[in-house]
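Project standup — Tuesday

K.O.: blocked on the structure for the chain from last sprint. Re-posting the sequence here as requested.
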Amino acid sequence: MSKVSFRIFLAFGVLALTFFHTACQVPTIEELKTYFEIMDMESKWVKKYYSPWPPKLILVPTISFRVKNLSDKPLKYAYFNAIFRQRGETENLGDNLFTAWSKKPLMPGDVSDVISMKSNYGVEGKNLVDFKHNPGWKPCTVDLFVKIKGSRYALLGKWEVSKEIDFKEAKPLGPKK
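H.V.: unblocked you, prediction finished:
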């Protein structure tokens, strides 16, 4: 191989490595936090299971929000992880993992559709009235994390979960009058 061919080959190799390195660069946790703005955060409790007889109702906390891309790059996907806890507890009440934008990237400055995340575990009672006096139904918080491109999870924020219940019990069946 001549000296000129070798230099051209070497130059292309360095260029390819530089491109590969910058294209695959993993953002730091601090950088990752600056990529996202959480908007329209809402929380409530929803039904996971309901049986009128024998009476049993399981409610789980849920959040919904939208995300604005504050970065200068399209976000092709993101993994959101919501960790639900009763206030003051270290043990999880439940969690949820959600993959966003797997088909269409979120472009810089764009805002996502609503993302909803529901805990896999909740609190059990007999009916809605039972929840008003249920000592197991304590105030909850949710920690929301995000991960992209092989990064570590970054905490985007911590929110209180509202005690609003989005569920209506079925009317009792009885003899027709």
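K.O.: great, moving the ticket to review. DSSP finds three helices and nine strands in the chain. The first strand starts at residue 36 and ends at 51.
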